[in-house]
Amino acid sequence: ELAGLVSIAVSIGIPLLSPDRGLLAPVAIVATVVVLHRFVTRWAAQRPTAERLLQGTVTTVVVDGVLQLPIMERVVLSRERLFAQLRGDSLEHLGQVKRLYMEANGTFSMVEADEPTPGLSIVPGWDKDFRALQPVAEGKFACVACGQVEDAPQKPSEKCPHCGAQEWHPAVEVLK
């Protein structure tokens, strides 16, 4: 669509700036772009495979407060970008997210958990003052890599069952 819009703008811009040039070529270009756009749109609407190829697909990047790291890697989505999006939606930790979808156009759609569970804090590490205010969930630790929460009396020493990472932080609850 953007390529079509640029083609139309370029083809019409020249005759508008220079009246000695004819209008036949720009009109032919505009007609061609419009017809091709309608053809491709109709073709994609009739064939789901073509639509996925042209438009992309929706991907689930957070499931029940846990980051889906292989999917994030495939769609080239960083943790920082994801956490910034969640903070922009006024969330404090991953336990508040039931599902987070990355739409085909790069935007995000979120389904919040009805009952937030303890989760990995999404507050930046350098904001120690705000992190200190977050209530820690006793006996729960979150994997730093994916956010998987495990029950343990003390910081786990084993690998995360979801992603295999070994770094754990205390899980936090919603600040009241």
- Low-pLDDT segments: none
Q: List how many beta strands DSSP finds.
A: 7
- Name of the CATH class of the largest domain: Alpha Beta
Helicity, in percent?
25-40%
Alpha plus pi helix count: 6
Outline the fold blueprint.
Layout: H1 2-17, H2 24-46, H3 48-55, E1 59-63, E2 66-67, H4 69-74, H5 79-88, E3 97-102, E4 108-112, H6 128-133, E5 136-143, E6 149-151, E7 168-172
Antiparallel strand pairs: 1-2, 1-3, 3-4, 5-6, 5-7
Helix pairs in contact: 1-2, 2-3
Spell out the key features of this protein.
176 residues, alpha+beta, CRO Repressor, four-stranded antiparallel β-sheet, three-stranded antiparallel β-sheet, 6 helices, elongated
Explained architecture:
With 176 residues, the protein is of the alpha+beta class. It has two domains: 2-55, no CATH class; 57-176, bsu07140 like domains (CRO Repressor), CATH 3.30.240. The protein has helices at 2-17, 24-46, 48-55, 69-74, 79-88, 128-133, and strands at 59-63, 66-67, 97-102, 108-112, 136-143, 149-151, 168-172. α2 (24-46) crosses α3. The longest helix has 23 residues, at 24-46. The two termini are 46 Å apart. The mean pLDDT is 88.
Short structural description:
The protein has 176 residues and is an alpha+beta fold.
